[in-house]
Amino acid sequence: MGIVVLTMKASVIEMFLVLLATGIHSNKDVTKKIKRPKFTVPQINCDVKAGKIINPEFVVKCPAGCQDPKYHVYGTDIYASYSSVCGAAIHSGVLDNSGGKILVRKVAGQSGYKGSYSNGVQSLSLPRWRESFIVSEGKPQKGVTYPSALTYSSSKSPAAKTDEATKAYQKPPVPETTAQPVTLTQVTGATATGAAHASLPKPSPSAGSTSSSLRPQPVGLRSGELDLWATSTYTSGQNSPRADPGEMDLWKPGSVLLDAGFVPKEELSTQALEPLSQGDPNCKIDLAFVIDGSSSIGKRRFRIQKQFLADVAQALDIGPAGPLMGIVQYGDNPSAQFNLRTHMNSRDLRTAIEKITQRGGLSNAGRAISFVTKNFFSKANGNRGSAPNVAVVIVDGWPTDKVEEASRFARESGINIFFITIEGATENEKQYVVEPNFSHKAVCRTNGFYSLNVQSWFSLHKTVQALVKRVCDTDRLACSKTCLNSADIGFVIDGSSSVGTGNFRTVLQFVANLSKEFEISDIDTRIGAVQYTYEQRLEFGFDDYNTKSDILNAIKRVGYWSGGTSTGAAINYALEQLFKKSKPNKRKLMILITDGRSYDDVRIPAMVAHHKGVITYAIGVAWAAQDELEVIATHPAKDHSFFVDEFDNLYKFVPKVIQNICTEFNSQPRN
């Protein structure tokens, strides 16, 4: 019996040893088969910006050819995340134009980025930015795992996002919750045309935290903003999330459904009965708000900006008989959110403002001002002509492009530019500003009336009343186009022998009296003068004198020439030497003064002048030929030609000439 047991024990031990050996052998085979996956370096294109990649640290491979200037880089050593990753790598010296691997690490945003030229790449300066990155050689650090595939920020189209948000309304109720349908009607503006109905589940008090899954999400909000929306609504209830106190004044409970374009059906009849204001007649202006939608402003400041716009819209009392307001948003490029005629009352305008989404990009305010001048104030966009044009430009920090030339063109086009600068550059940050004193160069006048400097975004609401008071003070809107500040006026003066020295001085006094009536500066009315006999002489051009006193002194210094009378040749000379240098947005006025019939033909030169848009006034004295004056004058001749029997009576026609100039101006579209 004992021998049998021993034999069985020996068999068990033998089997155990066999199994153990087999397992070890099997594990060795598995070990041989399982290999650590090889790290694959993701490749990117030259135009990929660091801000589009969500990963905080990563290794990538850049292609060849990223030294091209079209791949913008901002900063030196530390780069704004708006920069091309590969372009920054070349600028820093980590790569050359042949490409290669680099290690990228995200760091905090800087208060400013200074441009420089390095390794064949010119980087640009930039104001503060939300995020930065640094570049080093593409050698992975030990113990650090780098992604083989990069995670990019969402690039879904607005239509796709809207569709996703709409689906949230169709979400079925969570099990074990009781739901009661609430009928909502979608409306556009203040009308209920084409209303659509949807039922929303109403969670019972016992649903607890599951109620959060039933919240409708407002249409049009981007994915990054949904969490902000969630923290600022449905604040009542035991399990409702609490809003950040700093956000409460911007997003109040109960406003979200209206933001999304929905109002309870029972409220429609009440809204329809509310009388709509025709607007404040004491503030009849056409107003463009040019708002900063750049990435550096951030979402919270952008919401503060929208709240400011809504407050201004309410304070202005928008209406067809009062102020009209449109909005242009700028980042890299400007875009009109809506024009002057889109919303004709403050209520609709405030609703539209809430729906504006941030564009992102740089802060190209100069490009936005050019856009407003060329495109916004047109008849098709609601410009009334009879109302002053006003543009209020809001800038966070400072622009990333130059505003001086764009603003000059705007002023000359009759646009009153106001600038609101918020959290401007500190002494240490001024080195990053692209154009020093940009606000001073941009505004309509540098008298302080057109500039508002706000120390903090959280103080912006305090400027609402001050701004409204200024833009409505139409008597002080000095850049509005009028008949007296928007022309290039060329005097063509007969200096022939028949005039004589004494009468010539009388003619010059007439020219001075007319000039006195105009507002003269480099951006307002400009004056030039040509004297002619058989020959022609440029006495002074449009760019020579910029003040009224300088113009009057220049007129006094004109010397009498004496000679024959070649009026046709003088008109051609004035077109070439004066009006060829006129600004495209100026009205061109030629005022010709002669005392006799021309020795040459005036018909063809006069036709050329009319064809080029030069409005010609012909003033004849003594022996001037009436038929010739009518040929020279712009049609209708009765409004543009005058005859005076004696030189001493010239002064009597100053009011009549000015009146006709202004009557004609007021009958034409302004911009």
Characterize the biggest β-sheet: 6 strands, mixed
Order the strands across the largest sheet as they lie in space. Answer: 15-14-13-16-17-18
The helix-and-strand class reads alpha/beta
What does the overall shape look like? elongated
Separation of the first and last Cα atoms: 121 Å
Total beta strands = 24
Spans where pLDDT lies below 50 across 5 or more residues:
1-10, 24-33, 155-274
Radius of gyration: 37 Å
Strand content: 15-25%
Q: What's the total helix number?
A: 20
List keywords for this structure.
671 residues, six-stranded mixed sheet, disordered N terminus, alpha/beta
Describe the model.
There is one protein chain. With 671 residues, the chain is an alpha/beta fold. The strands form six sheets. It has a six-stranded mixed beta sheet with strand order 15-14-13-16-17-18, with helices on both faces. Strands 21-20-19-22-23-24 form a six-stranded mixed beta sheet, sandwiched between helices. A five-stranded antiparallel beta sheet has the order 1-4-9-3-2, covered by helices on one side. The termini are far apart.
